[in-house]
Design goal:
The protein is an alpha+beta fold. It is flat. Helices cover 36% and strands 28% of the residues.
């Protein structure tokens, strides 16, 4: 019966040796869980939808110039940017994460075609800000209009989708930044081209 103390001693040695291994395994699992949670948070942040203002800024960073128009198609923004010299026009695609890529570019434009856009005192960013002040919601599209229809001076046409789902076009004067007549009214027959 002298084996019993030896067995107890052997079991004690095994348990003592396993203690640090178990602790290390527990610490490793905890570190892995922390890394996984951090990665999940980063992935969620990366999926955050880029709004119209963010899409315009990303497009201008990729291709400096003047935003002529933008609209959303699903999770992608299509932003038309006129080059600083007025002789080129690029379509820039901006993903929901804000990544911008140039889809196509036309470099043989008539500089006179974009003269009024380049000279406008109120650019796209200011026009969106003014439109949102007049009609709260989210910008769904923006278009430069210099055709002077119905006696309206050069202006931006900004489509806003309100919290209740209705869409409205807000016209913003390109010189004063004030609201001007546009194709207004409830356009709740949304074209389904956006995701939100």
């Amino acid at each position: 019966m002298k084996r019993t103390p030896y067995v107890r001693a052997a079991v004690s040695v095994v348990l003592l040796a396993a203690g640090p291994v178990a602790a290390a395994t527990s610490a490793s699992a905890s570190a892995h869980a922390t890394r996984t949670a951090t990665a999940a948070t980063a992935a969620t942040a990366a999926r955050a939808d880029t709004d119209a203002q963010g899409a315009a800024a990303a497009a201008l960073k990729k291709y400096p110039g003047y935003v002529e128009s933008l609209d959303q198609d699903g999770a992608v923004w299509h932003v038309n940017v006129v080059g600083k010299n007025g002789k080129s026009n690029s379509e820039v695609l901006v993903s929901s994460s804000g990544a911008a890529t140039r889809a196509n570019q036309d470099t043989d434009q008539d500089a006179g075609e974009y003269k009024t856009l380049i000279a406008a005192k109120v650019g796209a960013a200011k026009a969106m800000k003014a439109a949102l002040a007049a009609q709260p919601g989210k910008v769904r599209s923006l278009d430069w209009d210099d055709e002077n229809d119905n006696g309206v001076a050069d202006h931006w046409s900004v489509q806003i989708k309100s919290a209740n789902g209705a869409t409205r076009d807000v016209g913003i004067d390109a010189t004063t930044g004030k609201v001007v007549p546009a194709d207004s009214g409830d356009d709740s027959g949304d074209d389904g081209g956006d995701n939100g």
